[in-house]
Amino acid sequence: MARAVSRVAALRRLPVAKLLAAAEIVLLAREHLAKLEPHERRRIAELVRIGRGRTRNLTPHQRAELAALVAKAEPRLFVRLAAEKLSPVPVPRRARR
User: Fold this and answer.
1) pLDDT of residue 5 exceeding 60
2) What's the Cα-to-Cα distance from 59 to each of 13, 44, 48, 53, rounded to whole Å?
3) pTM, whole model, 2 decimals?
4) Sign of the C-alpha dihedral, residues 22, 91, 69, 28?
5) Are 80 and 25 a contacting pair, CB within 8 Å?
6) 3-state SS assignment for residue 97
């Protein structure tokens, strides 16, 4: 119970704008994770656990599998959209190569 109260107290100290920005990023991340099937999300977690956060601890096949799963979640799009949400000025779009 004390832990929950301390979390709420910490949230009260955050400015509302920062809290809303964090919530928008969480929702954006959720949308990108939803692009993966549940078994794919579990597999990413398993590969990260196996590799202990380092790709060199994975076999070449596992690395390729992890890269494909991460690519499916569109991380570049996530970063661009997050930057657009947080930026006080419009973020210019780069031309695709």
Assistant:
1) no
2) 45, 14, 12, 13
3) 0.66
4) positive
5) no
6) coil
* Phi/psi at 54 (5° precision): -125, 125
Q: What is the SS3 string spanning 25-93? A: HHHHHHHHHCCCCHHHHHHHHHHHHHHCCCHHHCCHHHHHHHHHHHHHCCHHHHHHHHHHHHCCCCCCC
In the numeric block, which tokens belong to residue 72?
């499916």
pLDDT given at position 14: 66
What three-state secondary structure class fits 20? helix
- Contact predicate 91/80, CB 8 Å: yes
Distance CA 33, CA 43 (A): 13
